[in-house]
C-alpha cells in the first residue's frame, strides 16, 4: 500500500487502516447485536399482543439510537476536527462498548415492568451518541492516512467492509451463543451474553490509544495558518446546497443497507420461517459477501470515479433488490442453500452501491471541516435509513404484508439514491489537490 503524500511509514499506515476498519466493524457489531436478538428482546422487554407491533417496538428502539447519532456527530465531529481523529476514536469506541454491554443487565418487563423498556431505551440513546461520533474518527483517519491510489479501496473497506465484518462477527457470536445456550436458555442468558460481547469495542479503543498515529492531513492542517472553522461553516459559502444533496444521497445509501442487511434477520426468521440453526449461517455468508462487494466497489470507484460507480450499481439495484426480496420470501424455507444465495446477492449489491460514499463525503469537505461534514451527512443519512425498517413494519398489518411493503420501500429509496447521484459532481482526487495546496503554504524545513 503506497504511503506517498501521507508522510507515514508503511507500518503506521497499515495500523491506522486496521484501526479504522476494526473500530467501525466493532461499533456496527454492537448495533447488529440488537438485530440478531430482536425477537427475544421484543418478547422479554417490549411484550405486546401483536408480533409485528412487538418487532416495531424493538426496531423503534433501534431507530431511537439512530436519531441520536447526528448529535454525536456534531459533538465528536467538532472534537475530531479540533483535537484530532485518534483522541476522538479512543473516547467513542470505549463509550459504545460500555453502553452496549450495559444492555445485557437490563431486567425483563416481567421483573421490572415499565422500567425495563425505559432503561433499555436510555442505553440505546447513549449508544447512539457515541456511534455518531465514531464516524468522525474512523471515516476520516483511514482515508487520510493512505495515498490517493488507495482511498477508494479504503472507503469500501471501512464503510461497507467494516459493516460486513461487524455483521460477520455478530453472526459468528450468534451461532456460538446459540449453541452454548440452545432453545429456552437463549431467552434467559444467551441474549445477555450477546450484549456483553460489545466490550470488544472498548478493548479496541485501548489498542488505538497505544499504536495509532494521528492523521497526517489533520496534522498538516493544524500547521497551516487560517481562520477557525465553526459548525455553521457546513452551510455557509455555497455549502448549504452541497449539504442537502449529500444528505439525500446518504439517505438513499443508508436505506439500501438497513432494508437489506439490516432487515435480513427479521426477513429470514419472522417472515420466511427459516430455521434458527440455519439463520446464523445464512447471515454469516451474506456478511462475508458484503466485505467482497464493498472492497470491489470502492476499488472500482478509484478507476471509474465515485459518481459513475454509484450510478451504475444503483441503477441495477432498482430492479435487483426488490426482485431478490421476492425470491427470498417466496422460496421454501427448507431450501436453505437457495435462500442463502438470494440473501447473499441482496446484501452484496445493496452494500456495493454505497461503498464509495465514505470517500465521496471526505472529498466534498476540506480537512478542517471533514470530521464534522462526513459525520453529520453520514449519520443523518443513515438515520433516515435506520427508520425504514420501522416504517415497513408499521405499514404491514400482518407478517405476510412485509415482503410487498419492503419491495416498495426499497425501490423508492434506491431511486432517491440514483437521482442524488445524477445531481452530484465527481470528487475523485479532491483530497489530493488539497494536500498539494497545504504543502505549498507550509514553511520549508530548516
Number of domains: 1
CATH domain topology: Growth Hormone, Chain: A
Gyration radius, to the nearest Å?
A: 21 Å
- Largest sheet features: none
Given the structure, what is the number of helices? 19
Shape verdict: globular
Element-by-element helix/strand order: HHHHHHHHHHHHHHHHHHH
Pairing-aware structural class of the strands and helices? Answer: mainly alpha
Beta-strand fraction estimate: under 5%
The CATH architecture: Up-down Bundle
- Count every beta strand, where a strand is a DSSP E run of 2 or more residues: 0
* Straight-line N-to-C gap: 30 Å
Overall residue-averaged pLDDT value: 85
Percentage of residues in helical conformation? over 70%
What is the H level of CATH, i.e. the homologous superfamily? MFS general substrate transporter like domains
Keywords: Cell membrane, Membrane, Transmembrane, Transmembrane helix, Transport
Membrane topology: Multi-pass membrane protein
Pfam family, one: MFS_1
Organism: Saccharopolyspora flava
Verbal overview:
This protein is an all-alpha fold and 446 residues long. It has a single domain, classed as MFS general substrate transporter like domains (Growth Hormone, Chain: A). It contains 19 helices and no strands. The longest helix has 33 residues. The chain is globular.
